[in-house]
Write a structure and sequence with these properties.
This protein has about 325 residues and is mainly α. The protein is built from eight helices and four strands, in the order H-H-E-E-E-E-H-H-H-H-H-H.
Length: about 325
């Protein structure tokens, strides 16, 4: 019985071993096929991510933060080419008076500023003095108005600052609305253009210099450029007359330049960060992979935080631009 059992065991073992080998071969083939499928899926995902990255690059981000002749509303596009005009030539200068996306939103900011002040004034006229406390929009506007009048205009300009309160209030609300309009879906922040902030700074420069000329008179205003002490030696006076005027003129231009660059840089930076968050979602976001889901969740949380920070920055830099303008008016009116 022993040789027979041994022979049967050997055959059974050989058969079982062959079956295992066949199963192992089949499993290996399936694993290789699965690995090949995963590799193909990974390659497809990488190709798709590369396509998204190519579609959401620097040019796409620049397109969303620069001026254009169209307004993209997502579901439709407003073409402004019909409002494009030939440049007006003023000697060597060419002035383009075409209506662009930023011009449209500047008009909206102006309309909102006028509507806010008009509504508040109308409500204040309708109220009887001392019988009813202001509420709603009027209450909010009064809080802003009294703060801008007392703590921005009068405290920084000093005596005679009442004449500049309307300018200070208008400047604040106009810049604020221009900043906030860019946070709306499909909106545009006109103050993220250096040309817009430069124009606002130029207006402030004109008001500053006019205020100084009126307060000091022609002779006093000339001293803001030719700042030469009276008790100097005649030789030193001559040297100061050569050195100081360019320095003083450069100082006059540096102030509005700083206003323009500060507002432009801060409003542009926030939009670039928001677009970068959106780019992460488009490039790496996915609902089929853990990394993709993490990317979407993280980008949304950070994007929401940046959005609230942008609202704060919109108010902050409207205030900074306004208060520095008031400070510069006060400085030149009191001489130096």
């Amino acid at each position: 019985m022993s040789p027979l059992l041994l022979t049967a065991w050997n055959r059974l073992a050989a058969a079982f071993g062959g079956q295992e080998a066949a199963h192992g071969t089949e499993s290996s083939a399936q694993e290789a096929q699965h690995a090949g499928g995963q590799a193909a899926e990974a390659a497809h995902g990488a190709q798709e991510a590369a396509g998204h990255a190519e579609g959401w690059g620097t040019e796409t981000m620049i397109h969303h933060v620069t001026d254009s002749q169209s307004i993209d509303l997502g579901f439709a596009t407003i073409d402004l080419q019909a409002l494009a005009f030939d440049p007006v030539h003023l000697g060597p200068l060419a002035v383009d008076l075409s209506i662009s996306k930023y011009i449209v939103f500047l008009f909206l900011a102006a309309i909102l500023t006028i509507a806010t002040v008009w509504y508040a004034a109308a409500k204040a006229r309708d109220m009887q003095q001392g019988e009813e406390a202001p509420g709603g929009l009027l209450n909010a506007f009064e809080a802003f108005y009294f703060f801008l009048r007392d703590d921005v205009a009068l405290s920084n300009i000093g005596e005679g600052g009442e004449r500049f309160v309307p300018f200070v209030v208008t400047l604040f609300f106009f810049i604020l609305y221009a900043n906030l309009l860019g946070l709306l879906p499909f909106g545009a922040t006109a103050t993220s253009s250096i040309m817009v902030t430069g124009a606002l700074a130029f207006i402030s420069l004109l008001v500053i210099e006019y205020a100084g000329f009126v307060a000091l008179g022609p002779k006093g205003y000339a001293k803001t450029i030719f700042a030469i002490p009276e008790d100097l030696h005649p030789v030193m006076k001559g040297m100061m007359a050569i050195i100081m005027p360019p320095v003083e003129l450069l100082g006059k231009l540096t102030k509005p330049f700083a206003l323009a660059v500060r507002l432009y840089a801060n409003m542009s930076a926030g939009h670039f960060v928001l677009l970068a968050m959106l780019g992460l979602i488009i490039t790496y976001g996915s609902f089929t992979a853990a990394t993709g889901i993490t990317t979407i969740a993280g980008a949304l949380v950070l994007g929401l935080f940046i959005m609230f920070l942008e609202i704060f920055v919109a108010f902050l830099h409207a205030y900074i631009f306004t208060v520095l303008t008031a400070v510069f008016i006060g400085l030149i009116r009191h001489g130096h």
